[in-house]
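Limitations
The structure tokens in this dataset are predictions for the assembled complex, not deposited experimental models. Users should treat interface geometry with appropriate caution, especially where small molecules or nucleic acid strands are included. An illustrative entry is reproduced here so readers can see what is and is not provided.
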Amino acid sequence: MSDVTRKRIAVLISGRGSNLPSLLGNELGGDIVVIGSNKAEAKGLDIARDAGIANFVISHKDFASREAFDAALVAALNEYRPDLVVLAGFMRITTPVFTQAFASRLINIHPSLLPSFPGLHTHARALEEGVKLHGCTVHFVTPELDRGPIIAQAAVQVDDDDTPDTLAAKVLRQEHQIFPYAVRLFCEDRLHVDGLRVTTLPKSIHPVIATGAARV
Ligand code: GRF
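Predicted assembly:
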């Protein structure tokens, strides 16, 4: 019998899928039911196949507009009835067609301490700006790029000898800590959103779900 309290999670990637092992290796309070990509060559798809998880590719190059691609993506994801859609290195700017379809159940990980450094090349930009702390953010996705309610963040120290690559590696280690944590909070219905502010509710004790036998 399926557990109705467990969330169905869809994950989208475009590349290595470096966040997948931490998502697959931690208890999320839900199950990753599909991993999708806009790139057939995304290495992360091998992780999905090895784990026996359903996967699909929809190439953005096959569509005339961002909206048409997003509509196809929404349709493909909806076949898996996701409660939560997780962007884990999904390198596409999405349109409201996508963000509205999964409003309040769409989260992203971004390699900076938002609202600093939205967009690309965050590690190089952090070094250029001379910040002493850098990090990563898990946030709800809204139509505005890299600016949704923040669920979790982790900071790393920027050292004098850091390069964009060393900084990226440090930040990635933190991403692998906070991403499963944030997904789990969502799956446990513990996130309360008020404007841009997310507060974490205490863990509730779920009532015991009646079994089929008890219901007859
Ligand atoms: C991570 O840095 C994440 O913050 C960003 O994409 C990176 C993961 O990409 N959004 P990949 O799957 O390792 O290629």
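Some entries come with short summary sentences. For this one: Residues 13, 15-19, 44, 89, 109-111, 136, 172, 175 surround 5-O-phosphono-beta-D-ribofuranosylamine (CB under 6 Å).
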